[in-house]
Automatic annotation (TrEMBL):
The lineage of its organism: Bacteria, Bacillati, Actinomycetota, Actinomycetes, Kitasatosporales. One of its GO terms (molecular function) is phosphatase activity. It comes from Streptomyces candidus. Keywords: Hydrolase. Pfam families: SpoIIE. Transmembrane segments: none annotated. InterPro entries: Bact_Sigma-Reg (IPR052016), PPM-type-like_dom_sf (IPR036457), PPM-type_phosphatase-like_dom (IPR001932). The keyword Hydrolase applies. Residues 171-384 form the PPM-type phosphatase domain. The keyword rRNA processing does not apply. This is Serine phosphatase RsbU (Regulator of sigma subunit).
Length: 391
């Protein structure tokens, strides 16, 4: 434990852009490492790109196959024979509070490798992940490593609004994804947690390109401003509605689904103001959750919003989807129906929430074929565990 504390202090003292070089020095001193590489997951969550080289100058690897993909997908350390004689390479997930950032690969002499060393390396990778999150405030290095191609300006705005792509606590697990990852427009998600509550926001702004991104940015920040002022869910919706109407006078609006989960009981307060929908997998049965729809934010002046209550149970899986999912048409004009979505939810039921959005979007792409997507697609998956005496 003292050694880990010393390592964390060393990483905290490193320059933001020099975390990998510092990690290499520390791991060489402690374990005689022969090679250390850091890979970041790209925005589409399909590849892992190496950090340290300029963007696109070193080949990426799959986030789903091979040794690195195995460690990233399973979120467990995976060791195999190293590229040096008599060496072992440990591939270690770099994850912060459930948010999967990438993989750290460390090659050490075989004679000095055992289960205890593997556990220590896993702790090191977690500590490195926390420092990467902090360092991203001051350097673009790790954000550049996530890009397989250039983001549109609209996508740049949208990704900067997101809290992460996954999150985990004892009471729940969350995973989310937006597509097309490098050219998203108006879809977005946001979450915030406290001791006893989780607030989840799903938004679908109208329009395309930069105008849609700016509209969504206004909505997200208005909702955050109200939430951080301590307002309840309905007042959050009302304040954001006023902000959007005051700016656009009803010419543009935002569809929003606001949810506030009470962690001790599973009670959920909901304001449904638009198109994002909820599906539930409970006891093997997939069904949509019917909510009382209200006007989107910003459509009319001084709209009054009301909330409703429903309940989640331990073992429930919830899937939140935008109209870019359920309105997608095949080349023959067939919509991605409720039956198809229900099948996708069933077929991914054994995957952890962080992997479900990517898997469902893959099925959606197969349905769409070679036709370019006409709208954003947003999927957020939640597994509800509930609060236990242990948690």
């Amino acid at each position: 434990m003292d050694r880990l504390a010393s390592v964390e202090r060393t990483l905290r003292a490193a320059d933001p852009h020099a975390l990998l070089d510092t990690a290499r020095t520390v791991l060489t001193d402690l374990y005689g490492s022969l090679g250390v590489d850091l890979y970041m997951a790209d925005y589409a969550m399909t590849i892992l790109q190496p950090v340290g080289a300029l963007p696109r100058t070193a080949p990426p690897v799959s986030a789903h196959t091979g040794a690195l993909g195995r460690a990233f997908g399973a979120q467990e350390p995976y060791s195999c024979a190293g590229s040096f004689p008599d060496s072992v390479t440990a591939h270690l997930p770099v994850t912060v509070r459930g948010d999967r950032l990438g993989v750290l690969s460390v090659t050490v002499p075989e004679k000095s490798f055992d289960a205890e060393v593997l556990a220590e390396l896993a702790d090191f990778a977690e500590a490195l992940g926390h420092q990467i999150v902090v360092a991203e405030r001051d350097t673009d290095l790790y954000l550049q490593a996530r890009r397989a191609e250039r983001l549109t300006l609209a996508a740049e705005i949208q990704w900067q609004l997101l809290p992460g792509r996954s999150c985990a606590r004892a009471e729940y697990q969350l995973g989310a994804q937006l597509e097309p990852a490098y050219a998203i427009h108006g879809d977005n998600f946001d979450w915030s947690t406290s001791a006893d509550h989780l607030t989840l926001t799903l938004t679908n702004g109208m329009g395309e390109g930069i105008e849609a991104a700016l509209l969504t940015s206004l909505a997200i920040n208005a909702l955050r401003n109200a939430r951080r002022a301590g307002l309840d869910l309905t007042d959050q919706a009302c304040l954001a509605d006023q902000a959007i109407y005051g700016r656009h006078r009803g010419d543009q609006h935002v569809s929003v689904l606001l949810l506030r989960f009470h962690l001790p009981t599973g009670n959920v307060e909901v304001v449904d103001a638009g198109s994002p929908r909820v599906w539930r997998l409970r006891d093997g049965l997939v069904e949509p959750v019917d909510l009382e729809g209200q006007l989107p934010l910003g459509m009319f002046e001084d709209t009054v919003y009301t909330s409703q209550q429903w309940q989640v149970r331990p073992g429930d899986r919830l899937l939140f989807v935008s109209d870019g999912v359920y309105d997608v048409a095949s080349p023959a004009g067939e919509r991605y129906s409720e039956k198809a979505l229900a099948r996708a939810i069933q077929s991914t039921r054994l995957l952890p929430p962080a992997q479900v959005p990517r898997a469902v979007l893959h099925e959606l792409a197969g349905h769409r074929g070679e036709v370019l997507a006409e709208d954003d697609a947003m999927i957020v998956c939640m597994d509800w565990h509930g609060r236990t005496p242990e948690s």
